[in-house]
Design goal:
The chain is mainly α and 258 residues long. It has helices at residues 2-38, 45-68, 74-100, 108-146, 150-169, 171-177, 192-243, 246-257.
Length: 258
């Protein structure tokens, strides 16, 4: 059980690590895109339009920063945040395009993070498989322990409920029959509170355990009897099938006599 919990914990930890690695991968791709556009990699095709959009966004950010200073309103701050997000998306797109192009060495950071992500994903999948296996083994152990004791456990629960209901409503009568009293100054075995607990809790539990023991013994005797009867039936069927080949010979002898 403890091994199963530790396995689950490690799998959850790797899930959190995967989220952090994905965040780092996105930041690395954005840096790669920014570097690609800054190095002049956007002079043709899709990168050209991205380079133009990035330059326009940076220009607008610089203009807004120079015009607002420290007295920017909430609306102006929202426009700045929207422009920064737009510039980040441009860098992400440029970085993904750069990853699809022939390698230049600039993408090494992204590839290193992806390698770590692949290792973490493999280990997480292994731990999840191990966790499922341990869960199945634990359930099989519980089922193998509970199944033979099902009648005893059911009887114990029912007997405890009945005994507890009876002692709860007849506590005073039970204690009087034992020569005890619920009153503070009456006769007590230990004290009024302890005697009440003994009658309402310990006594029902003792009755439940006794009934469970008897039910378990009875169920074991019944299972033994059923197995014995089935074994005798199997022996009888085997003996009957062994005698069946002799029937044709008897029939042929009878025909010759005719």
């Amino acid at each position: 059980m403890i091994e199963h919990l530790v396995t689950r914990f490690e799998a959850a930890r790797l899930d959190l690590q995967q989220r952090e690695l994905r965040r780092r991968e996105e930041a690395a791709i954005a840096r790669l895109g920014e570097k690609t556009l800054a190095d002049g990699g956007g002079r043709s095709g899709r990168l050209a339009s991205l380079s133009t959009d990035a330059a326009a966004a940076r220009g607008r950010l610089q203009t807004m920063a120079a015009g607002n200073g420290k007295s920017a309103s909430a609306a102006q701050r929202q426009r700045v945040e929207a422009l920064e997000l737009r510039l980040h998306q441009i860098h992400l797109t440029a970085g993904r395009l750069a990853l699809a192009m022939p390698p230049t060495g600039a993408e090494s950071e992204v590839l290193a993070i992806r390698a770590v992500m692949a290792d973490a994903a493999s280990e997480r999948d292994r731990l999840r498989g191990e966790g499922h296996r341990l869960a199945e083994e634990t359930w099989d152990r519980i089922r193998s322990w509970v199944a033979p004791r099902g009648p005893a456990l059911t009887t114990m629960v029912v007997a405890w409920w009945i005994a507890r209901s009876y002692t709860g409503s007849h506590t005073e009568a039970i204690m009087s029959s034992l020569g005890l009293s619920l009153k503070r100054h009456g006769p007590h075995l230990v004290s009024a509170t302890t005697d009440t607990v003994l009658v309402r809790v310990v006594l029902p539990l003792a009755v439940a355990l006794l009934c469970a023991y008897l039910a378990h013994r009875l169920a074991a005797r019944v299972r033994t009897a059923v197995d014995t009867v089935r074994e005798r039936s199997n022996h009888a069927r085997e003996a009957g099938s062994a005698r069946q080949p002799a029937a044709p010979r008897v029939e042929r002898v009878a025909q010759k006599q005719r």
